[in-house]
Structures are given as C-alpha cells and as structure tokens.
Design goal:
By secondary structure, this protein is an all-alpha fold. The protein has 4 helices and no strands.
Amino acid sequence: MPHRKFSVLTRGEHGIIAGVCSGLSQYYGLRKAGLRIAFLISSFFFVLPVFLYIVLWLILPKYPTTQAMARQLRRQSGR
C-alpha cells in the first residue's frame, strides 16, 4: 500500500498575522512570500482579499481536528 501525503487546510504555524497565507501556501504547495505579496498588492486595489482573509481567519482551525482528518481520509479512499 503506497504511503499518501496527508494534508488538511488549517492556519499555518509560521504566520505573520493569523497564519492564513501560511496555511494556504502549505496546503496548495505555494511559496509563502509570493502569496503574501500577492495578497498585499491585491488588497491595495480591492476590498475582497481583506474580507476573505478575515473570514478564513475565523473559519480555519489552528490545528487539524479529528473530523477534518477523517474527512480527508474518506476523500483519499474514494468514498
């Protein structure tokens, strides 16, 4: 049985403000600095990134929960 990478979307451990950009970069395999720069630049022109950041800050758990881990395992098994 091949070993699968287990990942759950959470706030990152190495966040500057709330860890949202850090968590998104870990989950999607992006560079943290690039995501943070893109967020800053887009925040100067639009309000949506700031609103989205606040919503994700409130919704995303700091650490993976048991339910989130079980959900991820069900997705990987094809159920």
